[in-house]
Design brief:
With 401 residues, the chain is α/β, with parallel strands linked by helices. The chain has 2 domains: 3-274, NADP-dependent oxidoreductase domain (TIM Barrel); 311-396, no CATH class. 42% of the residues lie in helices and 14% in strands. It is built from 15 helices and 12 strands. Strand 4 (25-26) and strand 5 form a beta hairpin. Helix 1 crosses helix 2 and helix 6 packs parallel to helix 7. It is globular, with a radius of gyration of 20 Å. It starts with a strand and ends in a 5-residue tail after the last helix.
Length: 401
């Protein structure tokens, strides 16, 4: 296992972190014996960063991780979990959630505590409610050790959040498809230049980039590589090639996947990919982008929409469905993200578009936004939308008892 230092505190962290959002399942619930065995096996092989969050597995992830870290394992790892920013309505809520999380995890401290899923609007909300004072207080009384945030918004908002508080670290979505999406490469470099550790989520785009059955155009590119690697290895090595990256999170729920990721994490030094290999990955990214239905870069220039449509999120879900051929997952996250269950205070469905045309003159890609939103609504808002909204509400809207 390779390790990199968290810049501000010097913690030696495994470059592979264990993400507890997609633990193994049995009969509709976490397969506890198997999940605990997987987590402990990863720790025994050098993984020392465990990431969970309040809503993962409908609230069952944090307690499971707490169980897995008994018997001496807690002292061998750093635990990261997250304050659900979209559920915070008062300063008191912040303490309520944190104290409940400490109890769920069976620990007296959270080593790396993140304000979860921020965008510009959510940051403004929690900032007004006193998030800075909360984090400072929780640091002083020892309930948290390091403060950070995870991000799912636009680059300008990412930069102002980085500059708004003395964070130790941040967590961003980053992979070879998302170089200019959300925080992207520019955000990675911006945060690192200011001394923040950077934790990477979605290095495989929810597992899509690592599937053995790649789209033919992408598979053909991997087949031309002088050094043969699996799609998983290409994607992970591409992220780890960046020296600004402190570690990446992998949602590992198969023993074979854990072993594969551990093997790559023992070799993936920063700067270890040759220029021709980086060009190969860029060619694969271009092949994926050609499968996209709409050429949206997520720049956000079209926002805000007078009708409340979350245009970039609508287009991202639509593209995911067509690039990766997994409509069930794409439609669920459309319901969760665009439907106001996480990250948005109000729904921003494509069907809310009134074709006012205000977005057309703002889009640097010259996308016929109202026309595309009509297609998005037709495909993503089918008869199963209400059921998906109910499932997302159950997953992301649970409050402490």
């Amino acid at each position: 296992m390779l390790y990199r230092k968290m810049p501000k505190n010097g913690d030696e962290l495994s470059i592979l972190g264990f993400g507890c959002m997609r633990l193994p399942m049995a009969d509709g619930a976490i397969d506890e014996p198997r999940a605990i065995a997987q987590i402990r096996a990863a720790v025994d092989k050098g993984v020392n960063y465990m990431d969970t969050a309040w809503p993962y597995h409908a609230g069952a992830s944090e307690p499971l991780l707490g169980k897995a870290l008994r018997d001496g394992y807690r002292e061998r790892v750093k635990v990261a979990t997250k304050l659900p920013s979209w559920l915070i309505k008062s300063r008191e809520d912040m303490d309520t959630f944190l104290n409940a999380q400490l109890e769920r995890l069976g620990t007296d401290r959270i080593d790396y505590y993140l304000v979860h899923a921020l965008d510009g609007g959510l940051w403004d909300s929690v900032e007004a409610l006193g998030i800075a004072e909360f984090l400072d207080t929780a640091r002083r009384d020892g309930r948290i050790v390091n403060a950070g945030f995870s991000f799912h918004g636009l680059l300008p908002d990412f930069k102002r959040i980085v500059d708004a508080h003395p964070w130790e670290f941040c967590q961003i979505q980053y992979n070879f498809l998302d170089q200019a999406f959300q925080a992207g490469t520019e955000g990675l470099e911006y945060a690192a230049a200011r001394g923040l550790g950077v934790v990477i989520m979605e290095p495989l785009r929810g597992g899509s980039l690592g599937r053995p059955e790649q789209p033919p155009a992408v598979a053909g590119i991997w087949d031309t590589a002088p050094t043969r690697r699996t799609p998983v290895e290409w994607a992970l090595r591409w992220v780890w090639n960046r020296p600004e990256v402190t570690l990446l999170l992998s949602g590992m729920n198969e023993e074979a996947h854990i072993e594969q990721n551990l093997a790559v994490a023992s070799e993936a030094l920063p700067g270890s990919l040759a220029p021709e290999e980086l060009e190969l990955v860029d060619r694969a990214a271009r092949a994926y982008h050609e499968l996209m239905q709409v050429g949206c870069t997520g720049c956000g220039y079209c926002m805000p929409c007078p009708a409340g449509v979350s245009i970039p999120k609508c287009f991202d879900s639509y593209n995911r469905m067509h690039m990766f051929g997994d409509p069930d997952t794409a439609k669920f996250f459309y319901a969760a993200g665009v439907g106001g269950q996480i990250g948005l205070e109000e729904p921003g469905f494509a069907s809310q578009c009134v074709a006012c045309g205000e977005c057309l003159e703002k889009c640097p890609q010259h996308i016929r936004i109202p026309d595309v939103l009509e297609k998005v609504a037709a495909e993503m808002e089918d008869a199963g939308l209400d059921a998906r909204l109910a499932a997302a509400r159950k997953l992301f809207r649970v409050r402490p008892q």
